[in-house]
């Protein structure tokens, strides 16, 4: 996934306008970059494994009348950067093609790289070999490939540039007879383009200077960090993961165990969590939501709502409802903080492509975010504390911050959230000695008084390992501020009006959208989250339960599941997820055996 951009000019380009275009595209990812530009009747390509702003300052291609580029959030093919080149064709592509292996099997040309985007160039190459019409290439690509495709395909020998998209994440505009394109409309608004059009149903074919000379290619590599570590199965490592079956006393109504913080059982063995439970999955009439969103609807093809979109099952199902039930025209927004797995990204690509929905990405500095997590994990390992596990996920809270940015950039106020009402855990703060607030109606707690208590308890725990006082602290605190303290306007939760039913959700996603499941677990929950497998392994190893126990308990209380079925499910869902845990520790450059050894030796909260 990346931000793509370009300008085709009849005269010298406006340097400041182009720099603004590049700067905004950088918002979508800065892991690598690439530029294509014309110099002395020959197209030059410069690819780098660093920020596009740095690359632009080195290349300074402002004399050219044609410049294309990208700023990339790496998803696969670390060594195969864009633009992707085959012969005299090159492409820059935003999105993920989820069936590239299948498409290659249908082509006669051979694959050369790992990067999924190559298949677009392969299709074009094969079509031109058989003298197919240039105008037919976009339709052929979109008919064969699944997943988001927003592409600029350059055919220098033909003097053509093809722009096409299947989800609308591509716009063109004109200024002073110069044609600009970008992944988002806002980039073109910044430089005051006119006649801005979204490319979605019809492709755009532009004339560019013809050149029969081969591309001049320069690859600039300086990164030492491996952002996409290759998974190699290691049976000895997997054997380090323990899965004990402690004999815990559990609630006779739900499945919460005696190690749950602040749990108490009555004479019949029923826990206080059950006694205080108020149904949460009891939606209001849908008609109320239809009335609430009516003032936000826009005529024609204008987008009318923002959907915060993680690629998890709840936000994916929520998008399905918004398009098919509410009949609204959404734009999705994804905050990628470095712990979104490729599985999560592929499901984002599947959903947005099939529903034809634009996806705006805000990507953090992945290296910096992972460095922050690594520092906090090292601090945690020196003094393991179950109440401090949340420090490992603190960096994702800026998700809430950037919603406001997207509202300003798009001019859309309404945002619709697909937050699961049953994802209430209590134990994560309970292990900080904070008792549960059974009156809290939100999944995320708000308010100064609650947050002050939380931060006081967390600060006390931080003093046990001073490594927490590192450069990540401001990022953590500012993210939590935007989540818990800033006023939220013009937003509604879908599952306040639609009953959340796991069977319906899974059936819809798996059968209608070919939604991808993880290979190392039976559940569809949390599979796009790179941190969940690790922290749940910690919770289970030390306390004998995980998020799955609390989630299934809530389903029991809602009458959606029997206790017997819940016990059967958690027996599977609590099994260690070796592949996901290994990915997590590899991306943090942490030694698997050393980390798991510390976790396995933490004193248990139950008798062994």
Automatic annotation (TrEMBL):
Catalytic function, reaction form: D-fructose 6-phosphate + L-glutamine = D-glucosamine 6-phosphate + L-glutamate
Matches recorded under Pfam families: GATase_6
Keyword Transferase belongs to the record: yes
EC numbers: 2.6.1.16
GO-annotated molecular function: glutamine-fructose-6-phosphate transaminase (isomerizing) activity
Glutamine amidotransferase type-2 domain span: 2-210
Residue spans crossing the bilayer: none
Class of the enzyme per the UniProt entry, highest EC level: transferase
Keyword Zinc: no
Classification via PROSITE patterns: GATASE_TYPE_2 (PS51278)
Keywords: Glutamine amidotransferase, Transferase
Name of this chain's protein: glutamine--fructose-6-phosphate transaminase (isomerizing)
């Amino acid at each position: 996934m990346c931000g793509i951009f370009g300008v085709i000019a009849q005269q010298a380009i406006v340097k400041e306008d182009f720099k603004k275009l590049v700067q905004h595209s950088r918002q979508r990812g800065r892991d690598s970059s690439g530029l294509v530009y014309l110099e002395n009747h020959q197209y030059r390509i410069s690819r780098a494994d660093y920020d596009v702003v740095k690359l632009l300052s080195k290349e300074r291609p402002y004399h050219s009348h044609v410049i294309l580029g990208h700023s990339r959030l790496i998803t696969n093919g670390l060594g195969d950067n864009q633009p992707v080149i085959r012969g005299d064709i090159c492409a820059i592509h935003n999105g993920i093609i989820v069936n590239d292996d299948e498409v290659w099997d249908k082509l006669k040309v051979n694959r050369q790289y790992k990067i999924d985007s190559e298949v677009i160039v392969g299709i074009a190459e094969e079509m031109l070999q058989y003298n197919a019409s240039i105008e037919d290439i976009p339709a052929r690509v979109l008919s064969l490939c699944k997943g988001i495709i927003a592409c600029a395909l350059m055919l220098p020998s033909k003097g053509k540039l093809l722009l096409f998209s299947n989800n609308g994440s591509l716009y063109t505009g004109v200024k002073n007879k110069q044609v600009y394109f970008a992944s988002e409309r806002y980039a073109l608004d910044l430089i005051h383009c006119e006649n801005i059009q979204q490319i979605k149903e019809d492709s755009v074919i532009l004339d560019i200077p013809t050149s029969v000379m081969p591309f001049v290619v320069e690859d600039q590599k300086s990164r030492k960090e491996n952002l996409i570590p290759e998974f190699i199965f290691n049976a000895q490592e997997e054997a380090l993961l323990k899965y004990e079956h402690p004999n815990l006393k559990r609630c006779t109504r739900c499945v919460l165990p005696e190690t749950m913080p602040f749990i108490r059982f009555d004479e019949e063995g029923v826990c206080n969590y059950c006694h205080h439970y108020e149904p949460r999955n009891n939606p209001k009439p849908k008609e109320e939501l239809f009335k609430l969103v009516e003032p936000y609807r826009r005529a024609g093809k204008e987008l009318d709502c923002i959907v915060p979109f993680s690629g998890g099952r709840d936000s994916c199902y929520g998008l399905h409802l918004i398009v098919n039930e509410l009949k609204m025209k959404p734009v999705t927004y994804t905050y990628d903080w470095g712990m979104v797995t490729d599985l999560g990204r592929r499901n984002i690509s599947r959903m947005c492509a099939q529903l034809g929905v634009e996806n705006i990405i805000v990507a953090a500095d992945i290296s910096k975010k992972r460095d922050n997590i690594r520092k906090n994990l090292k601090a945690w390992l020196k003094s393991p504390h179950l109440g401090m596990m949340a420090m490992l996920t603190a960096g994702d809270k800026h998700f809430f911050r950037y919603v406001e940015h997207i509202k300003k950039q798009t001019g859309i106020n309404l945002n619709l959230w697909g937050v699961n009402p049953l994802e209430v855990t209590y134990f994560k703060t309970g292990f900080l000695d904070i008792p549960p607030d059974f009156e809290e109606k939100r999944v995320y707690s708000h308010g100064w008084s609650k947050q002050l208590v939380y931060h006081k308890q967390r600060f006390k725990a931080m003093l046990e390992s001073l490594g927490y006082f590192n450069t990540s602290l401001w990022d953590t605190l500012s993210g939590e501020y935007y989540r818990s303290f800033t006023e939220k306007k013009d937003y509604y939760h879908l599952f306040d009006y639609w009953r959340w039913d796991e069977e319906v959700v899974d059936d819809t996603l798996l059968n209608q959208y070919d939604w991808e499941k993880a290979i190392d677990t039976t559940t569809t929950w949390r599979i796009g989250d790179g941190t969940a497998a690790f922290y749940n392994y910690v919770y289970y190893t030390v306390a004998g339960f995980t998020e799955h126990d609390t989630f299934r308990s809530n389903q029991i209380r809602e009458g959606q599941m029997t206790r017997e079925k819940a016990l059967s499910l958690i027996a599977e869902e609590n099994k260690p997820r070796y592949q996901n845990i290994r990915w997590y520790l590899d991306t943090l450059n942490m030694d698997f055996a050393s980390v798991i050894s510390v976790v396995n030796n933490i004193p248990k909260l139950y008798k062994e």
